[in-house]
Amino acid sequence: MSVSRQAGRLVASSPVIADAHFLAEADPYHPERNPNGYINLGTAENRLAWDLLAPQLHAPRRVTAEDTRYAPLHGTAALLEVIARLLSRCWHTDVDPEHLVVVSGATAALDVIASVLCDPGEAIVVPAPYYAAFETDLCGRSGACLIPVPSASCDGFRLDPAAVDRVLSDARRDGRVVRAITITSPGNPVGHVYAPDTLRALAEVARRHGVDLISDEVYAHSVFGPDRFVSIRHPLVQSAHSSQTHVVWGFAKDFALPGLKAGVLHAGNPEVSAAVRTLAYFAPLSTDTQFLLHALLTDTGWADSFIAENRRRLRMSHTSASRRLAEQGIPHIAVGAGFSLWIDLTGWLPTRTFSAEEALRRSILQDARVNILPGMAFGCAEPGWFRLCHTTDSALVQEGIARIGRLLAARGEGNRNG
Amino acid sequence: MSVSRQAGRLVASSPVIADAHFLAEADPYHPERNPNGYINLGTAENRLAWDLLAPQLHAPRRVTAEDTRYAPLHGTAALLEVIARLLSRCWHTDVDPEHLVVVSGATAALDVIASVLCDPGEAIVVPAPYYAAFETDLCGRSGACLIPVPSASCDGFRLDPAAVDRVLSDARRDGRVVRAITITSPGNPVGHVYAPDTLRALAEVARRHGVDLISDEVYAHSVFGPDRFVSIRHPLVQSAHSSQTHVVWGFAKDFALPGLKAGVLHAGNPEVSAAVRTLAYFAPLSTDTQFLLHALLTDTGWADSFIAENRRRLRMSHTSASRRLAEQGIPHIAVGAGFSLWIDLTGWLPTRTFSAEEALRRSILQDARVNILPGMAFGCAEPGWFRLCHTTDSALVQEGIARIGRLLAARGEGNRNG
Questions:
Q1: Number of domains in chain A
Q2: Cβ contact (<8 Å) for A69 and B22?
Q3: pTM of this structure
Q4: Residue among B1, B68, B141 whose CB faces A141 most closely
């Protein structure tokens, strides 16, 4: 009695960050009722928008019998159509709904595109630090593996196409079969918004090496800084490589609906599109939820004002959290998108090692009772960096940062710059 | 530029039956507006229950912010709890919610359990005719392959554990690694309800060979004949093999909600359960839909009366369709469950071949403009059998059967018994 080797591998490599999330959520802080409870700043969840969403989600849902029946498993025509319209505006280019699929989450979308492009053992190059779940989402079922491209704190962990090029060249020289480059854009965990030049250079690297490019743009509408978001499919970027460029989007981040598991994938060419539809069969999205999402996007007045107001709140939340961090003397990278801050705790590590980073993480979780994720979870090359999510009640964020500040102070100023 | 070998295989083996479904649905018959339109009797979809469902689906859905957030990806505790209660009543044994997962459809549940049990190239033994999508659902992503166990019309295509035993022994003698036996119970496409003795004998075959047993019980509550449904986990069946017995259920058939993609999997032991949860991560169900399904099952008064009334309607629909078939001189197998009738058109095949069966299918689709599925799609060993789904508007079913009757009559009485 035992499970298959493929399932055993997945169980063994299951991401641990989910555990800390559910631990923290099971015993949440409350100023009066549970002052010693956990503060979860580990999960990239936008909790600032519920008042905007509730009226829409509570509105009577006049589904018809047809809406509950078998539908195309890659998404209903109606939902794909309105998503195409939304992405057309965002990308500043016409999006054909025929190239889109909707699946049950951005995770499923990443799994689908990785499985369509890669056979087991083949590689995907990812600039690091990268989205912590890439390892599971891109590799878990496809059998692909990741090759990280390190970036450095002295450069602000910026995306460097030349570094991607070098890693790709080295990998191929070593006989690795590389099938794709995957980025998050805007970046997660760091939060950078990429310039068209950078994206164009990256697409050119992919083209020269003949590998596909996957751009995970789940934060496309969650940009609040001075730099405008530019999709990999924006006319300013569009390269000779667009047919091998694929985009992931979803409702989890930009519409603050992570429970609804609505992931979107745009395939760059008909062959990939056909294969993507075939795989979408295994992870379809409930037509009931598709009906709701269609209603949200069809009401363009609501959708536009939601996006604008959400941006405003993200900016305020980011500013407020940044200020608190500064008050505690905790440095962070200046960014313009996303739900988190990439904070620098290297000064409080007794040694510049990942075991010291992990010890600090555990101390922050167990002693300060704050959940934040360590750089190691994101494949960061330098120990001591953490991702702190700020998109929740600002009093919670303040308390969380204050707790971290007190813990760091107690570790002794001696460690600072140590 | 090409897709992976694993994706290519899936595209190549994609089931064709979906095409006929969407062809028929795109141009539907209406007595006045489209008298020459298609009648779709190919899809096992229950269209008899909408009036019972609509009030529940239209009721205000008071989701809270929590209901839209990240939740355990194998199902919310609340939904798993009420599903466990429903299945406890159905199975006549206590079901622990810890052993259940909810995923985005019964297809995903089958994919998950097959991937947990099998590595590529390993085999699953299935009594034939079997559910047409088993090939894709069980093998598409897991890499497993099916070994059918033929059954004969002279035996009414009944499930024969001794035949399963022989096929399993032969396969293992040939060096095949067999990991599981999979059945549909009640049977699909034929519609048999299995006796406890038969199920016990089957579990004993699985135990003796040391293979797992997967029972797809998506029609568990759609039994209307004289024989009571008995789950593989019913105390009358329970064998020494229960820890290696896994059950698939869902809301598509028994609650007539196929669009909602709510599949359920009950794992027989903790190791399989842990692996199943890990794989559920890739095909989660929208928490919004989970909220709805929880509301449906929590209202036990509604759920019980839905199940009872639905059974009554299925019985009426089955009786009416059987009578129409008899009027047209079309034989079928007497059954007590499911949405379809297994009809015998062997008498109208010019030759007893699958190419003649396919020619007849195409003629029924193109000339009579009725979609029904041929035995070949279900791995039936004898050509000439078709699955006709009757769980839709009875006037449609009558018109569909009448059209088939006219087409068969036009093919000449000479072919009858030919």
A1: 2
A2: no
A3: 0.96
A4: B141
